[in-house]
Amino acid sequence: MKKLSTWLIVMFVIMFWGLRVIVAIMDTVGGSGSQFILKPTNSGLEIILLFVVLACILFIIKRQMIGALIYLVSYGFYFGYDAINNIIKIFNGEMQASNLLSVMVSIIGIVLPIAVLIDMLADKARKANPVDKKTDWFYKNENFDRQYDERADKNNYRTF
């Protein structure tokens, strides 16, 4: 994670995960009188997704492609279904502020995994061939290798 864009995307993913944690907590303690403007589509699935996404965040930080794919699939299905249902409600005339906010959060929930995947795909070449100026002078210096080979060929000492 050397680029600023990668750091920013991971920070937005963590902030969105924190928002979803707050939504899940407020939904479970909602019976005590506390109301939150966002409601999860499925409380049980939301809690499972929180743990799955927590593992995916660790894979994303370690630059593993499987983390980005699992993150995209899980949030794509969860928020895609929610976004479609809320958009249908809005077109049917059941327009409420909570539906508009849910659509916005669902769109963010779909865009973030796509941004993570695009960032991973764009960063794959740099991960395969990293450039490190501290060690490249030694490991990628062909002139040094040629000079060493020439000296090794000339210095043939006899052993008795």
Gross morphology is elongated
> In terms of structural class, how would the helical and strand content be classed?
mainly alpha
Please provide the count of β strands: 0
Could you report the average pLDDT, rounded to the nearest whole number? 80
Query: What proportion of the residues is helical, as a percent range?
Result: over 70%
Write out key terms for the chains shown:
160 residues, mainly alpha, elongated
Description:
The protein is mostly helical and about 160 residues long. The protein has one domain (about 5-130). Helices cover about 75% and strands about 0% of the residues. The protein has six helices and no strands. The N and C termini lie far apart (about 55 Å). The mean pLDDT is about 80.
